[in-house]
Amino acid sequence: MGHEDFTEESKPVQDSPERPTGISNLRRTIDFISSLISLSQSVRVFNGKWQLIRNKLEELYSGLIAADNFDFGENPSLSGVFPSIMATISECYDLATRCVDLSYSGKLLMQSDLDMVFAKFDNHVKTLAEIYKKGIWSNGYALVVSKPSLGASKEDMRFYIRDLLSRMKIGDLGMKKQALMNLYDVVVEDEKYVKVIIDVGDVVHVLVGFLCSNHVTLQEESAQVVSVIVGFDSYKGVLVAAGVIAPLVKVLDFGSEAGKVGAARCLMKLTENSDNAWCVSAHGGVTALMKICCDEDCKHELVGLTCRVLRNLVGVEEIKRFMVEEGAVSTFIWLLRSKEEVILVSSIGFIQGIATGDELVREMVIREGGIRALLCVLDPKWSYSSKTREIAMRAVENLCFSSSTCVSILMSYGFVDQLLYYVRNGEVSIQELTLKVAFRLCGTSEEAKKAMGDAGFMAELVKFLSAKSFEVREMAAEALSSMVMVPKNRKRFVQDDNNIALLLQLLDPEEGNSGNKRFLISILMSLTSCTSGRKKIVSSGYAKNIDKLAEAEVSSDAKRLVKKLSANRFRSMLSGIWHS
């Protein structure tokens, strides 16, 4: 029914002689509201006032449509509100007509009348909400709407979502819960439903409302649905605009364990945006999250998720400072001792996040036992997964390698022996990571090179010179070239005849599986400063490979090495003649 059909005969009046009842009364009211909305859009004066009225009309329309999806019969709670709604519609119709025709007597009087009719519609909306809040419909009253099959049309999907919305709005507790469960099922099964939910805007507001509910089941189920929606970046803003953050923080504070898990999962995704991080903090989220981390009775899934939310929040400097002041460093170092890997991994991420680029916090982490706690994760006697050990090893590298003092502390705790263990015995992924860490460690200080040489690292690095991966071969060669610059390591390296033979063999220009020849020659150059090293190079059957490289002008380093070896041979000959 358009507004042109809203004639004097059809216009609602309070004392109409024929009063439809039940469903016909409801549907007639819905039709009149639709027509009034259409008429209001023709008004060109008092635009702000009419927009507010139109918003209330649409809210009222949505609420009555929800009731229309149910076979309610002569429900007295709802039927009793129709006369007053129809009277206000009639009054508003008269005002709209006068505004369209510009036939009102004065602006101030019309503005006052519009304010009064807005207030009346607002009261109708609140009355309807109170009726629905009591859950006047149960599953016994509801018409069954089947879930559309996969590949259903958008209209069928919208119809199904609107039906679920109706159940969430006006059903009893059991119906609300079932509707939420069905909603969760469809958004998990087909992500197209997420867009439908956003399009049917009222769903988001109902979900946010349920997060504030005193019914634990409604909190838990709505948090689950929101956690799916928030996984789509383009819809995060819709949820935030609907006010989702404050109730999520409230659930963290006072909800059930399952509700808290759902809320933490939502906040984890929302706080990937630093603007939302501020909002979480403003609603007391940091304190609520920290409280969970300190609670020994909380299950590991919840604590792990909470750690990840805090890890996101720590990217905002002011929030990080607040966390430090609240004792976050001590709390998370305590969590590093957890045997639950989900907590451990999340805690390591937080420690790295809060200490990165902040020397004072990094020193605090070290001072309070952070390094020792991380090295415990690397201890082979504990049965952590390789993935967790890799995360711990990267954390050690990031936190400690920029300071010679930290490196010294690391080595005093036996870190070199742990590296050697994983180089020899680790799975491929952690073995390669360990090699990278060892390569970087030997470049930190002379002390580190000596410690690695004493531990037996050079023999393992030599094995990697023949690895399939070019990156691995290159790192092994570069690490060795650094280590043999230490006299003690040089002598140790030369003692094994096979070491020099392998280096020379890998210099063969025709050898496709060679490491970085520049580093191999660098190792040999260092070895020439050792008498036994020079002799073994010159006497090796593979020494000709150096000449080949030099003659082919492939490497200027090879030419320098040949020149140095030749000079040393000439000096040896002169020395022999002089002493004869």
From TrEMBL:
This is Vacuolar protein 8. Residues 28-136 form the DUF7032 domain. Residues 1-18 have a biased composition (Basic and acidic residues). The keyword Repeat applies. The keyword Repeat applies. Keywords: Repeat. Residues 1-22 are annotated as: Disordered. The lineage of its organism: Eukaryota, Viridiplantae, Streptophyta, Embryophyta, Tracheophyta. It holds the Pfam family DUF7032.
